[in-house]
Amino acid sequence: MHNLAIALHKKGHKVTGSDDEIFEPSRGRLAKYGLLPADAGWNPGKITDSLDYVILGMHAKSDNPELNEAEKRGLKILSFPEFIYEQTRNKTRIVIGGSHGKTTITSMIMHVLNHLNYDFDYLVGSQITGFETMVDFNPGSEYAIIEGDEYLASPLDPRPKFHLYHPDIAVISGIAWDHINVFPTFENYVEQFHKFAALLPDGGTLIYYQGDEELKKIARSLPETVVKQPYPGFRAVTRDNQTIVKYEGKEYLLKIFGSHNLQNLEAAHLVCRSIGIATADFFNAIISFRGAARRLEMIVDRPGLTVFNDFAHSPSKLKATIEAVKEQYPGRKLIACMELHTFSSLRKEFLQEYSGAMDKADVPVVIFNPENLKHKKLAPLDAEEVKRAFGRNDMLVVTACEQLESFLEQTVQQENDAVLLMMSSGNFFGIDLSKYFVSTNS
Fold first, then answer.
1. Nearest to 296 by CA among 315, 321, 332
2. pTM for the whole thing?
């Protein structure tokens, strides 16, 4: 929401907003542009008949006083995804969906288009090098690149966000059950992707990972008027810890690695090819792509220790990320630290989905904060339950900030040939990782 506010402000629109709490980096960035509210909380006095739109974020409950005032005045009220569609409805919308890889595929496409000097609209779920905001609109542009999250549009709109974007070109990277608080069964979760694909118009295109059986079913269910493009993922070789793709007789040295990223890469390639970008131009652009923030982001690379920060939290993301690092650094000890943070991951009935996800780690570490369980009103977890769920009796289970700090200190001091992988959609008890690791990135 704060990225949207900044993007609209930079286009010359008058933007106001409210929230009960505003944290960094949102707070500092809003203040930079003079958009930080003077006071926290809700003020119905901000709602006047002069407003063109009232845009709802995920905290706008049905009894919100500003929302109620907007309803009383009959103003145009849209959820975040509805507003994105409203702004891009006359463009070719390329929507990237899937349980994993959405942000990376979206950012790959954005990187290539930016490198080739295309104008385009975009919405992406992470900060991308070369882009100040995570959302932007460009008058006169032909394309809108949209990361299609399957989570709900707003507390008032129970539809998945990606159902509201109406794709002309749709990508689905894979399906692995997630968000069990919203989609209580795997079948219910899969149904949302069927509905998403069914939104494609005659002449639209579905680009999908061919190794996923559920995606094959979705492709078969679509009419012949929809173009289907399955992909297996590019093949590559690893040489001196670097990934090299050979395509049409030429070698391209990449700054990313892992079979999951090679799948993401081919999805992005097919999207770019479908809008007329030549393969050679695609690869000449993508070789400078370093990835999105917190997607296998290298934060330390020094003799004896390499450290990655990653957003992986669901079982499929966790498994793919660990396997990618193990393949890239086969001779080194892999210490994999994963934080259980989301509602789904902390539910006992979902925890069994993690079975085998950390098998490739030499030292598996799972972290969770018991206070999060209380906050989410979930049943307590103990270390033995976590070990059984993951199938690793040798697992270290960390449940206190001091315990994690001690582990990190020991790792930095004692390891001399290791790769440390820090994975979470949370914040590791609020620990500042820079206390332990000096970033390699400026």
1. 321
2. 0.85
